[in-house]
Structure formats: C-alpha cells, structure tokens
Amino acid sequence: MAFSPEAALKFLRRAHKQNRLAHAYLISGAPGSGKRALAAGLAGLVNDVDPSEVFSARAREVFIAEPESKSRRIVTEQVRNLEHALHLRAADGRRKVAIIFEADRLQPQAANAFLKTLEEPPENSLLLLLSSLPEVLPDTILSRCIAIPLTSPDTESSKEQDELIELLRTTTAENRWSIQHAYRLAQGLQRLLNGIRDEIKSKNADALKAEEARYKNSTDGTWLEEREDYYKALTESLYVQRRARLIETLFVWWSDLLRAKSGVDQRDLPGLKKETKNVAARFTTAEILRRIRRLEELRDHLNRNIQEALAIEVAFLKIFGS
After folding, report:
1. For residue 63, pLDDT beyond 70
2. Would you say 273 and 243 are in contact if contact means Cβ atoms under 8 Å apart?
3. Closest by alpha carbon to 274, among 125, 172, 206?
C-alpha cells in the first residue's frame, strides 16, 4: 500500500509518540513524490525541530550522503564518514539521523559497508534511505528497512482511473455482454496503458536530457550509460505501478457488484452506484465470484511478465464476455 507523504508522516508521528519507531526506513516513490519532505518531517519530528531547518547547517544531528563522485555513485568513503558521524554523541539526548539520497546509487562495496550499520545501528540513531528505484537495492538491505512507498505525485493516475471508470460505465449500458463487447473493453484498457507508457517514457527522456546537460562536464561516460539504464528501469517500474492501480480499480468495481448482489449499500465507486446495481442483477453471486477469480488470474499473469495485450484480451473474454 502506498501513502501520501502526509499520511506517512501521520503514521510515523503516532509510532514516535508510542516509542515504536524502527531504526531504519526505506522511503520510495517516483521523483517528486515527496521523499525529501517526508525525510525532513521525520528528522524534525524526532529532534523537535522545524523540518525547514533539517537540511541547514543548524541541524547538527543530521548527516547526509548522496551521489557526488564523477560516476554519480555513493562510494564507500561516504558511507564510512556517515558511520563515523553516527557514532558521535548527540547533544542533549537528540537522535542522530542519517539520510541517504538516491540509495539505489550505492556502489556495491558501499552497500555492503552500510549493511553493517543496518545490522548494528549506533545507539539513538535513525537511518533513512530514499530511492526512486528500490528494486535495485540488495535484498539484504531491503529486508532490514521498514518500507514506506509513496504515491505518485502526478494527477495522471487519477485521470486514467477516471477514464477506466467511463469505460466501465459504457459496459453497464450494454444490455447483453458479448465476445465483441469484451474485446472492445480490452482494447480500451490497452489504449489507456499505451498512453501511460508513452507519457512515462517522454517524461524520463526529458529528465535524462536535463541530467546530461547538467553533468556532462563533471561526470564520466560510464555514468551516462548507467543513467540510461536507470531511466529504462524507472520507466518500467512506474508503468507497472500505474497498471496495477488500474487493475485494482477493476477489482473495486467487481467488489461493488458483489456488494450490490448481497444487498449491501456501501460502494467504493459511488459514481456508478445505479449502474452497478443494474449489472449485479444479471448475475448470480457464484458468477460474480468466478469473474473476480479470473481477474485475480490476470493480475498474477501480469506479475509474471507474460505478453500483456494477449493476457488482457484472454482474461477480458472470461470476465466481460457472455
């Protein structure tokens, strides 16, 4: 489950109040999702300072590591310096906070060095790793951090979900579902997904160009090659996340159908309440459950990286066909 930065900080504030904060958190999310703001909010929370001061020189208890070398990697020396700072005594019982920006840029040797700190954190310390691509971090690091995934910062996801809801609205208007109807709906979803992928590719291509222009005179060629691979991986990661949200929207609608069939008035998609009730009347409870299981199978198949368009088409024939 992904959180907004505000919701995540509320959760962490409650944990802090109950003295239940973990020693290490992995804050992940797309660029612009609020990772930095959440880290500042948490660091400010544990030491009772304004978040706006966390990254200033006045915040003596906050230690930062981020890509600085020509390779734009976080090197072992930076990790050693961070560890040394964490072992120093903090003033007035304050908590020492280490923040690693772009943690996915840790060199393998640096990641191994930091693993020791995660396994045996210095007393009264808090470790925050920030990453747009946590999938590339070693499992040994992932398993020792509490994950806090943040929601996408843009409004496109809500826009595309609205478009999917409109597709479902056209579905409810069909008096009788058919193979042709299911095929049209599958094509509609695929058009949405193609638009999402093209949009993400375009944004990441622009981001890569901006980095190339910014760092072309201060980094080596290897870094640029790695950044191309990074943005390719980021594109796929963001695409999979947004595709998953659309599939979950389908689950929400079918769950509403099941509620309507059972006489439960609650709806997660209240804008389709009347239409949902009409569709539910056409099916038995067993038929709705069977189609939900087909949707679960589609989600599992997509997670296995099988051919997407074919998987959607075959599943929709079972879910929305006659």
Report:
1. yes
2. no
3. 172
End-to-end CA distance of the chain: 34
pLDDT digits (tens, 9 = 90+) for 274-293: 889 989 999 999 999 999 99
Neighbours of 130 (CB within 10 A): 23
- 204 alpha-carbon distance from chain centroid: 16
Query: What average pLDDT does the structure give for the chain?
Result: 88
State how far the Cα of 264 lies from the Cα of 83, in Å rounded to an integer.
56
3-state secondary structure of 306: coil
Strand boundaries in the chain, DSSP class E: 24-28, 62-65, 96-100, 125-131, 146-149
Backbone angles phi, psi at 136, to 5 degrees: -90, -5
The number of beta carbons lying within 10 Å of the beta carbon of residue 132 is 20
Angstrom distance (rounded) from CA 94 to CA 96? 7
Q: What does the pLDDT read at residue 225?
A: 75
3-state DSSP: the chain helix, strand, coil percent, rounded to 5? 65, 10, 30
pLDDT, position 219: 66
Q: Answer for the pair 230, 148: CB distance below 8 angstroms, yes or no.
A: no
Contact 94, 47 (CB under 8 A): yes
**Geometric angle at alpha carbon 198, from 195 and 200, rounded to 5°:** 105
Q: By three-state DSSP, how is residue 151 classified?
A: coil
- Whole-model pTM: value is 0.62
Residues 6+ apart with CB under 8 A from 268: 252, 255, 256
DSSP letter assigned to residue 74? B
Q: What is the pLDDT of residues 134-176, one digit of tens each?
A: 888 999 999 999 999 988 665 555 788 889 999 999 888 888 8
Q: Degrees (nearest 5) of the Cα angle 238, 202, 68?
A: 70
Tell me the C-alpha distance between 100 and 121, whole Å.
Answer: 15
